[in-house]
Design brief:
Length: about 280
């Protein structure tokens, strides 16, 4: 764990390990290459009890172990923390791991029963007995102040992304939102969160990526070795998909305005406009 600075130019809130690298790795590279400081705070970095079992925990742990070559690590979150530190070493950003459990591990405080045991529960509504947001608010308020704060938009409807966004919105002023990749690849997922009819109250900001920034992003995402098989068939597929996503966003930018000739890819942020 690195020693944190008193203030940062940029603070990114990541619901899980890898969300910020996948969605914003190129812009983080551009910021730090320009000498600006970046802190990436990952919300669900606590190690679960090894006794905890459910179908979804078992199937995700099996998939992650498979990505690592078959052997399940004794402490899966410790493995994922180390991957996260390797990823942001590539992007020259500081990391902070907050002590909250991923929703797949969270239990009811009364009954010790898992709150999201089913395969699709994490993409549904927040469980009424889920109390993570009350303590998360305090943890976010204690983070070092930053010039710009970035929250997940919540594309894909994952409950941890929705909680990160809503608690972030009550903690910080004038936030920016990033588009949650790979959920942006699901047809209709972006539209569900930011419908075209509602977009008049929002302004898009494009971050142009150089080849070097895109290469950093690909290298950083590849550091999440346990997650590789969840989203990609291998390192070449990872590079091709991240490049394609960057070009998709670049094409979106071309449809609405000027794009610098040197840009090889882009990432898109959103902010609420205050004309109303
Ligand atoms: Zn996530």
């Amino acid at each position: 764990m690195n020693l944190l600075k008193h203030t940062y130019d940029h603070l990114y809130l990541s619901p899980h390990f890898d969300d910020v690298a996948l969605s914003c790795g190129g812009q983080v590279s551009r910021h730090t290459a320009a000498g600006e400081s970046v802190l990436v705070a990952t919300m669900t970095a606590a190690e679960p009890s090894p006794e905890l079992h459910s179908d979804i925990v078992q199937s995700l742990h099996d998939r992650w172990a498979n990505s690592l070559g078959g052997e399940p690590p004794a402490a899966i979150v410790a493995q994922r923390r180390a991957e996260d530190e390797a990823a942001f070493a590539v992007l020259r950003a500081d990391v902070l791991h907050l002590p909250f459990l991923d929703c797949i591990y969270r239990c009811s405080p009364e009954s010790d029963e898992l709150l999201y045991p089913g395969a699709m529960d994490m993409f549904g509504a927040r469980h009424p007995a889920d109390e993570v947001d009350s303590t998360l608010a305090g943890a976010l308020a204690a983070l070092p102040p930053a010039g710009r704060v970035y929250l997940p938009l919540g594309v894909g409807g994952h409950v941890d992304h929705a909680i990160a966004r809503s608690v972030g919105e009550t903690t910080f002023n004038h936030v920016l939102y990033y588009e949650d990749y790979p959920y942006t690849m699901t047809p209709g997922a972006f539209e569900a969160v930011l419908p075209a009819a509602a977009r008049g109250d929002w302004a898009a900001e494009f971050i142009w990526l150089t080849e070097a920034a895109l290469a950093d992003k690909i290298e950083a995402v590849a550091a999440y070795r346990s997650q590789l098989s969840s989203f990609f068939t291998g390192p070449d597929d990872l590079a091709a998909k991240l490049r394609a996503e960057g070009q998709r966003v670049l094409d979106e930018a071309r449809a609405t305005g000027e794009v610098p000739a040197w840009a090889v890819a882009a990432e898109r942020l959103w902010r609420r406009s205050f004309h109303a």
